[in-house]
Amino acid sequence: MLKNTNHSYGSMAMIMHWLMAVVIFAMFGLGYWMTGLSYYDHWYHAAPEIHKAVGMLLLGVLLFRTGWRWLNVRPALAGKVWEQMAALSVHRLHYVLMFSVMISGYLIPTAEGVGIDIFGWFTVPAMLMLDKQQADLIGEIHWFSAWVLMGLAALHAVAALKHHWIDHDATLLSMLGVSVNRH
User: Fold this and answer.
1) Rounded to an integer, what distance in angstroms lies between the CA atom of residue 95 and that of residue 109?
2) What pTM was estimated for this model as a whole?
3) CATH number corresponding to 11-176
4) What does the pLDDT look like over 88-109, one tens digit per residue?
5) Contacts of 98 (CB under 8 A, 6+ apart)
6) What confidence tens digit (pLDDT) does each residue in 21-48 have?
7) CA-based diameter of the chain, in Å?
8) What are the sequence ranges of the domains in the chain?
9) d(CA 93, CA 137)
10) Cα 64 from Cα 183, distance rounded (Å)
11) What is the 8-class DSSP label of residue 117?
């Protein structure tokens, strides 16, 4: 089933969740790795181009995912009321951080008014110009938001494993597409 129900995530939500998780972790790894490259390394210029292009495609997926989320029911959350509130807060914070990382990632290379080439397919145009101090601040926001996103993703994974191994509920299985009654 494509759409969510009151009891489970639909295939579209699951595909977007896992696709974005894998790509975001890969992008974090690429971003971390490329900051250590020397000017004379072949990847010094190639890696940022890949990072920017994939980041813009990921922003497109995030926009679609956000719209999809608004048009679909959210499956019931498991756990105690405080756990449900924490889960909802973490999910919302994930979206805030993903948008923060991706929008700042867009603003850094376009600060000088140059668009972002997406693998030669098309160019995402620059919307505004920033001075060096503003661009540096945006870079810090990008870096900080990415690290916080990774930490929150780790917390999210630990919570999913806690639900699976300690609470013995179907929270993790619901995002894996497995429909099982664990009681």
Assistant:
1) 22
2) 0.89
3) 1.20.950
4) 999 999 999 999 999 999 999 9
5) 20, 24, 62, 149
6) 999 999 999 999 999 999 999 999 999 9
7) 59
8) 11-176
9) 21
10) 35
11) E
